[in-house]
Amino acid sequence: MIDAVGNPQSVLVLGGTSEIALAVIRRYTGARKPRVVLAARPSPRRDAAVAELTAEGVPVTALDFDARDVGGHSAVLDKAFADGGVDVALVAFGVLGDAERAWQDHEAAIELAEVNYTGAVSVGVGLAERLRAQGHGVIVALSSVAGERVRRSNFVYGSTKAGMDAFYQGLGEALRPHGVTVTVVRPGFVRTRMTEGLRPAPLSSTADQVAEVVVTAVRDRRELVWAPAPLRLVMSALRHLPRAVFRRLPV
Amino acid sequence: MLTRLSGWGRTAPTVARLVSPRDFEAVANVVKKSRERGVIARGLGRSYGDPAQNAGGVVLDMTRFDRIRRVDVDECLVDVEAGVSLDALMRVLLPFGLWPPVLPGTRQVTVGGAIAADVHGKGHHVVGSFGDHVRSLDLLTADGSIRELTPDGEGSALFWATVGGMGLTGVVLRATLRVVPVETSYFVVDTERLDNLDDLLARQSADDDRYAESVSWFDATATGPRLGRGVLTRANHARRDDLPAKPRRDPLAFDAPRLFTVPDVLPSGLLNRATARAFSELWYRKSPTRSGQVQNITQFLHPLDVIGEWNRGYGPRGFLQYQFVVPFAAVDVIRRVVERIASSGHVSALNVLKRFGPGNRAPLSFPGPGWTLCVDLPVRPGLGELCDGLDELVLGAGGRHYLAKESRATAEAVRRGYPRFEEWRAVRASVDPDGVFASDMSRRLEL
Ligand SMILES: Cc1cc2nc3c(=O)[nH]c(=O)nc-3n(C[C@H](O)[C@H](O)[C@H](O)COP(=O)(O)OP(=O)(O)OC[C@H]3O[C@@H](n4cnc5c(N)ncnc54)[C@H](O)[C@@H]3O)c2cc1C
């Protein structure tokens, strides 16, 4: 259960090696030690995260999870929920890929679509079913401003995020009467492994700053937030620019 | 029907299927058919946190069971259904010259809720808590059977596990309560204004036993030497001869005014430092020292009942109440808690301090000999950490939290505070091995 001041008792991360998600977990495991489930592909990074949390006295379980293996999602979620439910579930997996390859190489395009969109929809449906039965809980969907107005420079990625963003917003509406909140988080440029080597866009942030936005949004039961917050205004302006102007912007 | 439910503090709403059965058989059917997420009874929802809600499960609305079945004036007994409110009960009893001996700070609670939380009033140091006045009760248990339980003899362990058991041993359907005779519906009140916490504590300790009712309010916004300046009010039931001529003509009269209801649209943060200070100043000023004043029930016992739904004044983020008891020897904890709150930037306008008398046999009953302090805190960033810090002081001194107000502590905190927890748990396990009775609180605190 989530208590009166917003402490969850259990947190599930799908895409459990995401830097943002791990930063969120660190914030949740300060004074209190909620149960943590990290669902991700087996990797040294996952092992390191488990070791770090264990050393801090956090009860943590790792589950093998592959976003593209949609057939296996149900079994993973069953395991994640087996120990008394999940209070906060973070949908944190995603690939950025090489933007130019992504629209010219069939396989690269499909991978982005399958991981970022199909995979997100697949776990979304599975989480919805289980949280609904629980009568409470929060799904945090890590979306991106890239989906808000899709740019020439990374439109395949942007389109997958636009799709997942829309799906989770709709899911939030559908789950409202069931006591479940869906929080869609739209970070801008986050300086992480995933964006290494790319030139940071204006209003960029760190994983830890995004985590702070996430934790606050969950506590306040917000449904749509930007990280950092001022991006909301920027994106609102960008959304309304005529194409001819938008095309020429150096973003 | 799927319904979003929260406690009085409006902090952690969840959705459950709310059912309002019409008869006891229907209640038994709901319990027998319960599934994985279980069932919990709900009274008037006046507990602050999450004990009367059950995410994904069933919540039994008990307020339809509101019949007062019998008043036995000679024996001073009443036989009531569990959904009867203490307000209704008091109104029915007064014309008979009878009085429910334990009334909490609001009368808008049910008999079932009063048993489940073993509530206390301002008279605890003299009359004990609600469970001490229950002669028998009917409990519907997980197997669908109804057992009549009494404080002594066979079934007494289950009786005392139900008193204070937060609805987790079963559903109380009916109870026989002992009530007391009174001559009037008035109190003779002594009010003392004291300008710091030490004086307040000392004064309250000196001669509480001369009064049937005793409580103090203090100002947690004043700082420095005036920290904890407060108002001590103590009273005895007025006898007929105590009354001035006019009320003496109708000594058992009662009418409760309800002036206004707070609308549901207030923003969070209405109660801030400035308003809390203004309120505290006002309360302090309006209560100069005087003795022997005759006051009616609302004036003395339930001044807040004049405002309906006042919990909305805290806005949509809600608030929590932090109430604990520490042994008399640990009175210093009271002082340190008050200081910590005053310097934390969090604001509490309603601060109530009381001395408890001896506790009873119920393993999870809250009151026990010592000081109890209760503060109201709107939810703001940092509140969780502040309370975690207070927990250390309280538990370290052998104190405990009041479950009817609890909304954020840990499973370990409850076990530390209630040394007889395992004894209670064993009784619950024996009547409800599969955990049919479950609530958000029972999941959160592993009860
Ligand atoms: C303004 C205010 C002042 C208060 N002052 C005091 C005070 O001075 N002293 C004090 O002790 N308390 C006080 N309280 C707390 C209140 O008395 C308790 O929380 C009480 O339990 C509320 O009763 P309820 O009918 O609203 O029960 P609910 O809040 O609906 O339920 C409380 C618990 O009782 C259980 N329950 C309810 N009905 C039944 C039943 N029929 N069978 C089994 N279990 C049942 C529920 O499962 C739950 O665990 C105050 C509350 C408010 C809002």
Automatic annotation (TrEMBL), chain A:
Similarity remark: Belongs to the short-chain dehydrogenases/reductases (SDR) family.
Source organism of this protein record: Saccharothrix carnea
Protein name, as recorded: Decaprenylphospho-beta-D-erythro-pentofuranosid-2-ulose 2-reductase
Gene3D superfamilies attached to this UniProt entry: NAD(P)-binding Rossmann-like Domain
Molecular function via GO: oxidoreductase activity
Taxonomic path: Bacteria, Bacillati, Actinomycetota, Actinomycetes, Pseudonocardiales
Keywords: Oxidoreductase
Entry keyword S-adenosyl-L-methionine: no
NCBIfam families: PRK07904.1 (NF005912)
From TrEMBL, chain B:
Annotated organism of origin: Saccharothrix carnea
PROSITE patterns (alphabetical): FAD_PCMH (PS51387)
Official protein name in the record: Decaprenylphospho-beta-D-ribofuranose 2-oxidase
A Pfam family: ALO
InterPro entries: ALO_C, FAD-bd_PCMH, FAD-bd_PCMH-like_sf, FAD-bd_PCMH_sub2, FAD_lactone_oxidase-like, Oxid_FAD_bind_N, Vanillyl_alc_oxidase_C-sub2
GO cellular component labels: membrane
Top-level taxon in the UniProt lineage: Bacteria
Keyword field contains DNA-binding: no
GO molecular function: D-arabinono-1,4-lactone oxidase activity; FAD binding
Domain FAD-binding PCMH-type per the UniProt entry, residue ranges: 11-182
Keywords: Oxidoreductase
